[in-house]
């Protein structure tokens, strides 16, 4: 009997031991710098549990069975580790990943055209990853404006109350000076201008890459203020399916769906989005602050992998967007008495992208790409309409080679733009531009601490001539967490009629570009920044980035009135100079992150008497974002201060503060969320009127503050194949 008890006791202890679990923390760092790697993937294959490392490079797991467990640790641009850990012997495990920058299929930052990680590129690049994009998609699932608005030094400038048209300003410079790319293709801008931001939904995007300052050497004309490259999600062997449904109290409904999967030879990603917004008038003044909108988007992509070294893919992007704002009565019931004013934008976009990528050997690759973009837009107000079509094409071939100390890229491209105004228009403002370009770029490791990047582009436009565009950047880094970059380059912009000033007056009575009389805009710019990151205590990490910049534009394109009531484009007689500083500070403590930022934007119009500050540009901007992130919860609280601005009349506006709150709860099947955007209801109508009489032909003052006020939204993301963020 005694032996039986002993046997039963041993079996019980064995079962208890077998059933025991432990909490595990896995720290992932860079072998060369010993710095943590946020965003690395840690996956227990047999348990089918995965997590992403936080800003301290730590991934945490609960209830991992004791014993040997196979774990896979990966990070884009680094060699993957597959190993076994013995859970139960300790709770913390430390791994270092080696850089895989010579493996050309592991591209980290596409906009740099380099295979290096962001820490080893002399050009200053701001990176927004998939986790933060997911949070911003919850806040605004219809377009990317939320992602960009909260980046330091970037302003989303609304140009129309009735349509909601919005332009992006980097460091105080107009939207036409920022180049918008998707997967390296220049698909947006020109005639679409202020509608571009509003027609790019965020759910199928994997990351954002932002380069501030002149980037024309990398991607040609138009990137005087900088460029923003949106990188799409690509299919993986594990299928992905997301349904996202959102409803706002402002009568807006949005549905998004994304699906992707691949096998050895083929892959596919499918994205669709639909948005409906009723005309919304929070002031009850009879005019809409959000236009009535019906928007549909689709984006299928098909991938072919003939070998491990070759990828071919083709994608289509289509958008139908109809937005009408203005007099609520006319929108809902039709024209009646004094209810006559509306502004309608009906637009259709169709574009194709084709890419061939071939890894020639272990250190070199060949890339060929082409896109064709077609945009059809009709803008209508009472007694006037602006109607036209724009077709853009982009073709490029480039060759890349990476050695132990140097990375090279050499290439050539062709860009064409053709705007065709409706033949019935009184003013015919058709314009066709053709630009040929060649470029070469080199990144050279002078030593372990110093890296130099140099580049040269030569563009030739058939109407405006030759543009040599050199650039240079230098990076210093050490193992103590300190790094610094300095760089600069030249830029240019070919004149066209699609400026903020022309759009503000709906292009009415705006004369065509006179190529014989106008010069191309030219620029130069310099950036200098320092970075430092360290651990203040065992559980608290700290990082700071301080940027200083200056950009100058010669021959700025101005829209001036004529004696006979028309508007004509002229070159400015002196410079536009934008200088300032940006400060970004981050604290992390366990599951908490606190971001602080400050932007000083001092943009002066030297061609005007007294060198005044650029209108609608706040000189001082401050932001604070506090986030809590765990496997189950993401909770954020944000505060933004926008300083005083000047209107075109010289009138000084009031400053204001906006606040927001978002909460997300992860489940195995998906995520639910609540978002309180601008819950203090700061809007311009509280400071000054948005609409001036007469009612039947109103005037709209310049917009310097939010117009829609408080927006509450609730939604759900359904993941039929499971939520990777939930253990």
TrEMBL record:
<feature type="signal peptide">
    <location>
        <begin position="1"/>
        <end position="19"/>
    </location>
</feature>
<keyword id="KW-1134">Transmembrane beta strand</keyword>
<keyword id="KW-0998">Cell outer membrane</keyword>
<dbReference type="InterPro" id="IPR008969">
    <property type="entry name" value="CarboxyPept-like_regulatory"/>
</dbReference>
<dbReference type="InterPro" id="IPR037066">
    <property type="entry name" value="Plug_dom_sf"/>
</dbReference>
<dbReference type="InterPro" id="IPR039426">
    <property type="entry name" value="TonB-dep_rcpt-like"/>
</dbReference>
<keyword id="KW-0675">Receptor</keyword>
<dbReference type="InterPro" id="IPR036942">
    <property type="entry name" value="Beta-barrel_TonB_sf"/>
</dbReference>
<comment type="similarity">
    <text>Belongs to the TonB-dependent receptor family.</text>
</comment>
<dbReference type="InterPro" id="IPR000531">
    <property type="entry name" value="Beta-barrel_TonB"/>
</dbReference>
<keyword id="KW-0798">TonB box</keyword>
<dbReference type="Pfam" id="PF07715">
    <property type="entry name" value="Plug"/>
</dbReference>
<feature type="domain" description="TonB-dependent receptor-like beta-barrel">
    <location>
        <begin position="274"/>
        <end position="677"/>
    </location>
</feature>
<keyword id="KW-0813">Transport</keyword>
<keyword id="KW-0472">Membrane</keyword>
<protein>
    <submittedName>
        <fullName>TonB-dependent receptor domain-containing protein</fullName>
    </submittedName>
</protein>
<dbReference type="Pfam" id="PF13715">
    <property type="entry name" value="CarbopepD_reg_2"/>
</dbReference>
<dbReference type="Pfam" id="PF00593">
    <property type="entry name" value="TonB_dep_Rec_b-barrel"/>
</dbReference>
<keyword id="KW-0812">Transmembrane</keyword>
<dbReference type="InterPro" id="IPR012910">
    <property type="entry name" value="Plug_dom"/>
</dbReference>
<keyword id="KW-0732">Signal</keyword>
<feature type="domain" description="TonB-dependent receptor plug">
    <location>
        <begin position="118"/>
        <end position="226"/>
    </location>
</feature>
């Amino acid at each position: 009997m005694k032996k039986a008890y002993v046997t039963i006791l041993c079996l019980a202890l064995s079962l208890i031991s077998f059933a025991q679990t432990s909490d595990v923390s896995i720290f992932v760092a860079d072998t060369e710098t010993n710095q943590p790697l946020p965003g690395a993937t840690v996956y227990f294959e047999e348990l089918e549990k995965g997590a992403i490392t936080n800003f301290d490079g730590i991934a945490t797991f609960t209830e991992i069975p004791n014993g040997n467990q196979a774990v896979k640790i990966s990070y884009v641009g680094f060699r993957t580790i597959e190993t076994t850990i013995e859970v139960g012997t300790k709770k913390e495990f430390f791994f270092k990943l080696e850089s895989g920058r010579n493996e050309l299929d592991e591209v980290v930052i596409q906009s740099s055209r380099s295979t290096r990680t962001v820490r080893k590129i002399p050009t200053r690049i701001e990176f927004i990853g998939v986790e933060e994009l997911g949070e911003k998609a919850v806040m605004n699932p219809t377009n990317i404006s939320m992602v960009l608005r909260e980046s330091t030094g970037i302003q989303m400038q609304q140009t129309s109350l009735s349509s909601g048209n919005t332009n992006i300003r980097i460091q105080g410079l107009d939207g036409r000076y920022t180049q918008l790319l998707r997967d390296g293709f220049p698909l947006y801008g020109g005639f679409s201008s202020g509608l571009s931001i509003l027609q790019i939904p965020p759910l199928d995007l994997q990351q954002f890459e932002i380069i501030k300052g002149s980037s024309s050497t990398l991607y040609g004309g138009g990137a005087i203020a900088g460029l923003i490259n949106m990188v799409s999600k690509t299919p993986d062997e594990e299928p992905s399916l997301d349904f996202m449904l959102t409803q706002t109290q402002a009568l807006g409904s949005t549905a998004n769906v994304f699906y992707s999967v691949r096998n050895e030879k083929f892959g596919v990603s499918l994205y669709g989005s639909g948005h409906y917004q009723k005309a919304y008038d929070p002031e009850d003044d009879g005019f809409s602050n959000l236009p009535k909108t019906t928007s549909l988007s689709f984006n299928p992509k098909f991938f072919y992998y003939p070998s491990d070294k070759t990828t071919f893919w083709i994608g289509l992007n289509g958008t139908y967007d109809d937005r009408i704002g203005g007099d609520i009565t006319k929108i809902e019931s039709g024209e009646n008495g004094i209810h006559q004013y509306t502004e309608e934008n009906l637009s259709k976009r169709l574009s194709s992208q084709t890419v061939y990528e071939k890894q020639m050997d272990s250190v070199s690759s060949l890339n060929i790409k082409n896109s064709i973009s077609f945009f059809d837009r009709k803008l209508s107000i009472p007694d006037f309409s602006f109607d036209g079509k724009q077709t853009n094409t982009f073709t490029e071939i480039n060759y890349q080679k990476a050695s132990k100390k140097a990375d090279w890229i050499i290439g050539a491209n062709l860009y064409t733009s053709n705007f065709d105004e409706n033949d019935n228009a009184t003013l015919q403002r058709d314009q066709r531009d053709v630009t040929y370009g060649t470029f070469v770029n080199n990144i050279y490791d002078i030593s372990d601490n110093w890296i130099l990047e140099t580049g040269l582009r030569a563009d030739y436009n058939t109407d405006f001539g030759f543009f040599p565009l050199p650039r240079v950047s230098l990076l210093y880094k050490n193992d103590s967490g300190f790094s610094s970059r300095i760089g600069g380059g030249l830029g240019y912009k070919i004149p066209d009629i699609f400026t903020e000033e022309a759009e503000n007056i709906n292009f009415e009575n705006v004369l065509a570009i006179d190529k014989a009389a106008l010069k191309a805009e030219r620029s130069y710019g310099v950036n200098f920044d320092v970075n430092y990151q360290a651990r203040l205590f065992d559980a608290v990490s700290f990082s700071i980035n301080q940027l200083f910049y200056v950009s100058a534009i010669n021959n700025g394109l101005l829209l001036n009135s004529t004696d006979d009531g028309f508007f004509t484009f002229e070159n400015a007689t002196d410079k536009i100079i934008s200088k300032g500083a940006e400060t970004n500070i981050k604290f992390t403590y366990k599951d908490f992150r606190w971001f602080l930022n400050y932007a000083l934007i001092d943009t002066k119009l030297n061609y005007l008497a007294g060198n005044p500050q650029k209108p609608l540009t706040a000189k001082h901007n401050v932001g604070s974002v506090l986030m809590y992130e765990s496997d189950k919860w993401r909770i954020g609280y944000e505060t933004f201060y926008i300083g005083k601005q000047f209107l075109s009349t010289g009138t000084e506006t009031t400053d204001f503060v906006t606040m927001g709150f978002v909460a997300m709860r992860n489940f195995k099947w998906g995520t639910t969320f609540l978002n309180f955007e601008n819950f203090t209801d700061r809007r311009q109508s509280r400071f000054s009127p948005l609409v001036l009489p007469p009612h039947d032909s109103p005037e709209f003052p310049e917009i310097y503050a939010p117009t829609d006020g408080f927006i509450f939204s609730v939604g759900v993301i359904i993941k039929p194949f499971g939520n990777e963020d939930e253990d």
